[in-house]
Specification:
heterotrimer; A alpha+beta (335); B mainly alpha (293); C mainly alpha (301); A: 335 residues; alpha+beta; Rossmann fold; OB fold (Dihydrolipoamide Acetyltransferase, E2P); 6-stranded mixed beta sheet; 31% strand; C: 301 residues; 67% helix; globular
């Protein structure tokens, strides 16, 4: 078990800097998720922790030890890859055992440890199979198993669920979370899926263009996004952004006002502004009503299914509580 | 394209490339350099010393009527070999592609000649057309045609062309069949729905979609006809009669080893080198476009 | 034409895994039989020379020299083949076959080994001179030994390698087709495998041996078939450097069996030798057909 500390990490490829100084402190046993759109540098960051990319400047510490110059194998980490990276010509058992074999462990020890991992992951019936004979979910488990048998201080996950179909993803998400709780191993997990980030993370890091925009517990980040980017990236459908004058608000230094769709309501009494209903999507439990504000800005209102559904083309009043709104300045930073 | 992952180290990779580097240097670059060097000299009549003549050997070659004739012979030979072998192969591939079942059986049988050495192919065809015992010669005789490729240059050319093309059909067939089978069935069916008959479909859909394969095979077959047919020519005609089947590669051999004219042979090697270089560039440009990376 | 269009060529014709057309494009009846007829005519053109050679290898010399020769096999099969294998004309054909086998195996193994190593180095390392090395290799891609025979002959003679297996083998290993094929294949191996191996603690050679090599099995086998045939079928090079009949390879040895001048050739023995010369490569090709076709279409050489 170990802490992971990143101090002012920077990475340049050629002459372009892609990571612009990131600081992260991960406590022992904590599950931290890095979330962001593709190209934001989240995978590069993870690979620097793994030792698969060199660190241009800054320091990576695992368990208090500086590891910048260490080979991946010497960092006491294990990694689960997006495409699993299972050795195609080896059986499930050999895939899990490979690292231990290289480390020169005894046959008996290897068998025990692989056996334990296989039991934990319900892989016992498949130990003799080749990766191509397994389903996507099973391959995913083998990749997990390969990480577990090493008993590392840190688990690194690089979008491990993105190759699975939606249903399996939800199931495996749950399994990963339970497994991490049970083993208590410090974990760093990279994903572009904000739902994964919300459900898995003890703390999440929202990355945008090589910068960590916000670090914090998921609900905290959701409730108090520090930037417009975070506000729009976390939450689906994303937060509505209204120009201040349209919203009828006056606040010095602020340029826009953000309200989450679930905090906005269609109300005949005391509306803050009026809008035209463009179309409504009934999703069963809830309905998303898309409206156009007078200046043409689109906004979304999330209603529960029981509420009265307005007709398309109807003019409606919109309202929200002042406590639910967040003001952003011209640069997109929360005021 | 580069790998994202690399291993560290300098000595290990150098050690790994060393065997190939060594063999290539000794048996490839050094001889190729020698060829260029020797092409600038002529030996004196006793073979004791070399006299520098600059581009004299090349000048001599390009004005030499035998060498120019060999160029023409090579051109005719390559064009004929390429056309015959590709034509027959395409015909067979189109037929095999029409079959749903059984194309595998035909393929298994049709790939035989690929495994047969050009020199052996030469012997087989020589046997059929041998002026004394050849069975085809005999049948032609009963029809009143007196086949004699030993004396008749045109017949000699025809024979080496057919023998060379014969050995190449398999290769072309495999590539054409692969190309044809890669054309989506739906495209052909769409054309059929549009009312196109077989020949129209072939002309307007299949042939254009097959053109990458065809172009690739054109280049490869020309290279084959240039270099790998030495065995056919040597076994059937030895370049004769009156040099009517002396292609460039054969001339390098006969001038260098039979005639012992090293300077001229080296100059010829250099010219061939340039031709191959040009063909390589053509092929590389093509491969580059074809394989997207 | 786009790259995607062009890529179709590389699709290996492993099987015609197409759904059967619903009778629309494929016509049954007359057209169907015409297709078979056309293919059978083609097969006749391909096989007639081989059949004739086989027939000639089973009859007596007088039957051949009085044309037309028979079109069905005779009863001299064992006699002719025994004579060819045991005594031959200049050298026993069995010995020539052994020479060919050594040469073909030497070329196939040698080229595969050095190519695997250097392709591994080029793809998985960054070392000084890597680009230079890459281009040097590329230069050798298409230059056949035929073009540089005279100076290569002198090099080999200088090393005293005339009439030796090393003289037969080494000059023909000196080209980069196999290196290129392996490079192309290594490029398609997912980066994550090497990364996983690194995380698992495998060094470069361990990765090469435990992971890359087993994954290359099919490519190696396919290339082996192609190189074996290439080596077995060499003609000009052995013709130049084996002056001693006991070092002749079978493919070049056949031509040496023809008498100089006007004497009558010993056709039954020559034809038996021709058949013997084609059996090993044909067997290799037919038995490893799928691998071979894939290797061929992948390597384009």
């Amino acid at each position: 078990m170990a802490t992971v500390t990143l101090t002012d990490i920077r990475k340049t490829f050629g002459s372009t800097e892609v990571i612009h100084g990131v600081d992260i402190d991960i406590a022992d046993g904590e599950f931290v998720v890095i979330v962001g759109p593709s190209g934001c540098g989240k995978s590069t960051l993870l690979r620097m922790v793994a030792g698969l990319e060199t660190v241009t400047s800054g320091e990576v510490r695992i368990g208090g030890q500086r590891v910048n110059e260490r080979e991946p194998m010497d960092r006491d980490i294990a990694m689960v890859f997006q495409n699993y990276a299972l050795y195609p010509h080896m059986s499930v058992f050999d895939n899990m055992a490979y690292g231990l074999k290289i480390a020169g462990r005894s046959k008996a020890e290897i068998a025990t440890r692989v056996g334990e991992a296989a039991k934990l992951l319900q892989l016992e019936p498949y130990l003799d199979r080749r990766p191509r004979e397994l389903s996507g979910g099973q391959r995913q488990r083998v990749a997990m198993g390969r990480a577990i048998v090493r008993k590392p201080a840190v688990f690194l996950f690089d979008e491990p669920l993105s190759n699975l179909d939606a249903k399996l993803r939800v199931q495996m998400r749950l399994e990963i979370k339970q497994l991490q709780r049970r083993l208590g191993v410090t974990s760093l997990y990279v994903t572009h899926d904000q739902v994964e980030a919300m459900t898995l993370a003890d703390r999440m890091i929202v990355m945008n263009a090589g910068v960590a925009d916000q670090i914090g517990p998921p609900l905290e980040v959701y409730a108090n996004p520090r930037t417009e980017f975070v506000a729009s990236f976390i939450g689906s459908p994303p937060m509505n952004f209204l120009p201040l004058d349209v919203a009828g608000e006056v606040a010095p230094g602020a340029a826009r006002l953000g309200v989450r769709p679930e905090h906005m309501r269609i109300t005949p009494t005391d509306p803050r502004l009026t809008a035209e209903v463009k179309y409504a999507e009934a999703l069963g439990a809830e309905t998303l009503v898309h409206v156009a504000l007078p200046d043409g800005t689109m906004a979304t209102v999330r209603q529960s299914a029981g509420e009265l559904q307005p007709e398309e083309g109807a003019s409606v009043g919109l309202g929200w509580d002042a406590g639910d709104q967040i003001l952003f300045d011209a640069k997109g930073v929360a005021v | 394209m580069e790998k994202r992952v690399t291993f560290k180290g300098i000595w290990l990779p150098l050690l790994l490339v060393l065997p190939q580097m060594f063999i290539t240097a000794v048996f490839f670059f050094y001889p190729a350099g020698q060829a260029v060097w020797q092409s600038l000299f002529i030996p004196d009549p006793f073979g004791l010393s070399m006299q520098f003549v600059g581009l004299g050997n090349f000048e001599y070659l390009l004005t030499n009527s035998y060498y120019r004739a060999s160029f023409v012979t090579t051109a005719i030979f390559s064009v004929l070999v390429t056309l015959v072998s590709m034509g027959v192969a395409l015909y067979l591939a189109v037929l095999a592609d029409r079959l749903i079942k059984g194309s595998g059986v035909y393929r298994t049988l049709l790939i035989w000649p690929y495994a047969i050495a050009p020199a052996v192919a030469g012997v087989l065809w020589l046997f059929m057309f041998n002026t004394r015992v050849g069975i085809v010669t005999w049948y032609l005789g009963t029809l009143g045609y007196d086949w004699n490729h030993v004396l008749n240059g045109g017949e000699a050319m025809g024979l080496v062309v057919v023998a060379s093309a014969w050995g190449r059909i398999s290769y072309n067939f495999l590539f054409f069949l692969a190309g044809l089978q890669a054309i989506p069935r739906s495209v052909i069916e769409a054309a059929a729905i549009d009312g196109a008959h077989f020949w129209t479909r072939f002309r307007t859909i299949v042939w254009p979609l097959l053109s990458p394969t065809t172009f690739f095979l054109l280049v490869v077959n020309v290279v084959y006809a240039f270099f790998e047919t030495f065995g056919v020519i040597h076994t059937i005609t030895s370049g004769g009669p009156q040099q009517s089947t002396t292609i460039l590669v054969y001339k390098v051999y006969s001038d260098g080893f039979v005639g012992q004219d090293l300077g001229s042979s080296a100059a010829q090697s250099v010219i061939l080198l340039l031709i191959v270089g040009a063909l390589t560039i053509i092929q590389f440009k093509f491969i580059e476009r074809r394989v997207h990376y | 034409m786009t790259a995607r269009d062009a890529l179709v060529v590389t699709t290996p014709p492993l099987k015609s895994g197409r759904t059967p057309p619903e009778g629309m494009v494929e016509r049954r009846g007359a057209g169907y039989w015409m297709t078979h007829l056309g293919l059978i005519i083609g097969l006749f053109f391909i096989f007639f020379p081989i059949w004739l050679a086989f027939v000639a290898s089973t009859v007596t010399q007088p039957e051949i020299v009085r044309p037309p020769m028979p079109l069905l096999p005779g009863d001299q099969f064992f006699e002719n083949y025994r004579k060819a294998l045991v005594s031959g004309i200049n050298a026993p054909v069995a010995l020539m076959m052994l020479n060919s086998l050594f040469m073909a195996l030497g070329i196939a193994f040698g080229k595969i080994v050095i190519s695997l190593l250097s392709a591994f180095a080029i793809v998985y390392f960054r070392f000084p001179g890597r680009r230079l090395f890459f281009w040097l290799i590329f230069l050798t891609l298409m230059l056949p030994v035929e073009v540089r025979i005279v100076p290569t002959f002198e090099v080999v003679a200088g090393f005293g390698m005339l009439n030796s297996y090393s003289g037969l083998i080494f000059p023909l290993i000196a080209s980069a087709t196999a290196t290129f094929l392996f490079r192309q294949f290594f490029m398609t191996v997912p980066d994550e495998l090497a990364e996983a191996a690194r995380v698992d603690g495998a060094g470069p050679m361990r990765f090469f041996w435990d992971i890359l090599l087993p994954m290359s099995r099919t490519n190696i086998a396919a290339l082996f078939v192609i190189l074996f045939i290439y080596g077995w079928n060499q003609y000009l090079w052995p013709l130049l450097i084996t002056t001693d009949p006991s070092m002749n390879t079978i493919v070049m040895g056949i031509k040496q069996m023809f008498p100089s001048g006007d004497d009558l050739a010993d056709w039954p023995v020559i034809m038996a030798t021709s058949i013997l010369a084609m059996i090993p490569p044909v067997v290799v090709v037919i038995s490893m057909q799928k691998l071979f076709i894939r290797g061929l279409v992948d390597s384009e050489k």
